[in-house]
Amino acid sequence: MPTLRDIRQKIAAVKKTQQITKAMNMVSAAKLRGSQIRMEQFRPYAGAFKQMLASIASRVEPEAHPFFNRAETVEKVELVLMTSDRGLCGSFNMNLINAAEKFIKQKKAEGIEVVLTTVGRKGRDYFRRRKADIREFYVDVWNKFDFSNAQVVARDAVSPFTNGEVQEVYLIYSNFVNMVVQRPVLVPLLPIIPEAAIEGAVTQEYLTEPPADEFLGYLLPRYINVVVYQGFLENSTSEHAARMTAMDNASSNCKEMITSLTMVMNKARQAAITKELMDIIGGAEALKG
Amino acid sequence: MADKSLLLEVVTPDRQVVSTEVDIVVLPGVQGQFGVLVNHIPFLSALEIGEMYYRKGGQIDYIFVGGGFAEVTGEKVTVLVDSAERGKEIDIERAKRARERAEKRLAAGRTAELDWARAEAALRRSIARMKAASH
Asked: Domain B6-87: which topology?
């Protein structure tokens, strides 16, 4: 039976935890809003790139650019995995890591080697502990990032493809569906499949300068940057949403705990008072006797 | 021409820099500078690092652009670039420092191909920034 003092201390501790989780919840809410605005602003930019790619891709030969090259035999692929730098965001990172594990297992079954690039501390730590093949990692990026971060990640992800070290490049990040749902998605980054780009897009006939084949040389590297940056934005927004939900749950759990502990405390206090009364009465009776 | 005007939008991944009606816009294409008036044929062009400008009434505004694309239709010009700054927003001191850094790196001689390309791009950006800011 815990003493009254123990219970009081425990309640105080839970209250302090609740203060922290509440504060983190509010911080995440503010960051989420900022992140969402950035995502909104980027959407037209990304949309314009996709449309440009679609209208150019429909007019060139599939061999027009090395980024279109589909290897006949795939021996090694690269996976760019985005996770967060920090925890306390529920199952956010675990979902991403599971998606990556599943992908790696599947590729291994096909006899294909997978080399990793991780963006975010959690992914790196996990796969480093398991001695996976990490080619490149980026940590402490999520707190403050802009387009140039995506450019760096994209450049380093593209180089093993261009020098023939890997035959395909994939990207896993968390897609922000809504406040409660964030789903890991696997996006093939390279090679670019022109048919997939054209599908469903509204194409417009353009005059281009330089001619379409050459134009691709300018467009495709930037297109990769755009896809990676979109991943950055989605992933960061998802992280904040996940943390907000997790901290909201933690706060309400704290509240529940405080309620039940208070109940226990009151009972213990009652018991103590009763016991004291019994003692006093018992004493008085004894004196009378 | 008076009945229709040309809408110019300059966007970077992080923000929209300009959205306005203009009379003419002049852009730094990779095959040379070109101007766009209203009712232009649909046109796509890759853009160099450089400066663009547009005229509206008697007013001419200059913008530094960091490379990208321009999408032109009859009534709209969309400029999609990595970075863009209006002439008056540019930090000249910073551009000067960037220029010195890049020049030093280039003077140090040809090192890795990639570093060379990056230093060269940095130099071109800083020069274009200073030029756009000088008007």
From this structure: ATP Synthase; domain 1 (2.60.15)
Q: What is the DSSP letter of A204?
A: -
- B47 Cα to chain A: minimum distance (Å): 9
* Strands A76-82, A168-176: pairing kind: parallel
With beta carbons less than 8 A apart as the criterion, state whether A284 and A61 touch. no
Which residue in A54, A79, A89, A119 is the catalytic one?
A89
For domain B91-133, the question of CATH label 1.20.5 is answered with yes
pTM score of the predicted model: 0.85
Contacts of A226 in chain B (CB under 8 A): 13
Q: Does B58 touch chain A (CB under 8 A)?
A: no
Residue A254: active-site member = no
- Return the amino acid letter for A188: P
Taking phi over 0 as left and psi of -120 to 50 as alpha, with beta for the rest, A267 belongs to alpha
Q: How many CA atoms lie within 13 A of A158 on its CB side?
A: 19
A59 shares contact with chain B (CB less than 8 Å): no
pLDDT at residue number B1: 46
**Does residue A82 have a pLDDT over 90?**
yes
DSSP code of residue A90: T
Q: Report pLDDT digits (tens) over B35-77.
A: 999 889 888 899 989 889 999 988 899 899 988 999 998 888 9
Number of helices and strands in chain A (H, E): 6, 6
Answer yes or no: do A209 and B44 touch at CB < 8 A: yes
Complex confidence, ipTM: 0.79
Give the start-to-end residue ranges of the domains of chain B. Answer: 6-87, 91-133
Among candidates B16, B31, B69 on the partner chain, residue whose Cβ is nearest the Cβ of A52: B69
Q: Indicate the length of chain B as a whole number.
A: 135
Question: Angle at CA A96, nearest 5°, toward A92 and A99?
Answer: 140
